């Protein structure tokens, strides 16, 4: 038998030979950020940092960690108050906090749908949704991205209770779920929508409440998942829905039951971040202005994905092509990253560009200039 470490090296070398190897990197030089999910600049906000530290001091949690799971020693009035606040922000009956959006999606998809039920999932949904589905005993069916005709054709052949898992804003293409039409379709077939608001939290809606609230559809969505490590600039997540949903998760969802509760500093950071955004709602409009500027400048560029959000994709088909294009841009001071298979389909390799409130008009113009230069003078592989 091949030694253990050699078996791992064989797999790694196979991935490397296909040009698909991943590695952790840090940049030795300061770059202009066009890659992070810090859309509103809150992760780098010194004012918010100081506010969080002051709130930690005033709340005197007297604990560096939560000390255990919520069902043992990890629960506290601090967490419960934060959950009540989040439920109010997201206009839901109840909210349940998680350490990450990945864990929240895993908890919901693995425990709520039952054997005999059917989960329909947009083909571009996040890995955490798909992993949660794999842990479920329910039947799993994928439908074409944002294609409600394809979804309806498959809904007609469904069994048991129906769940439809989608995202508000998709993380690779940056396009938006047709939520109003989906709500109508789900109602027609008595389906429950599971909406991942990861990339709309903070960016859309009053106080950053996301897409469903911005459209007044929150009462039509059975399960909503919000994450705080993107536009909110901190860490953590929550599931929002009826009280029965949160009580069910506490009783049946293994990713909730068997994990350590969020630390006091994390909980205070979340509450502080939403309070800060409530006083700085103009950040949403500043982001919108930068997104509109990028779209205006790239209007005649044939390789841009059709996105109206802060996530913009620029196609450079081929793993080597997109990596060379990204390296060229990084050499000129732009922090951008190539996205390759299996994260995106073969032939759809792209540079994923994230726009932020802190990107200047000059920086956006310079980036667009370099992108168009790469298009007219492509790098030879």
Side by side, the strands of the main sheet go: 2-8-7-6-5-3-4
General shape: globular
Spans with pLDDT under 50 lasting ≥5 residues?
A: none
Q: Per CATH, which architecture of the largest domain?
A: 3-Layer(aba) Sandwich
Rg calculated over all Cα atoms: 22 Å
Number of strands: 12
Number of separate domains: 2
Number of helices: 15
What's the SSE pattern?
A: HEHHHEHEHEHEHEHEEHHHHEHEEEH
Q: What's the CATH H-level homologous superfamily of the largest domain?
A: Type I PLP-dependent aspartate aminotransferase-like (Major domain)
Q: Largest sheet at a glance? A: 7 strands, mixed
Instruction: Assign the CATH class of the largest domain.
Output: Alpha Beta
The helix fraction, in percent, is 40-55%
**Proportion of residues in β-strands:** 5-15%
Amino- and carboxy-terminal Cα gap = 39 Å
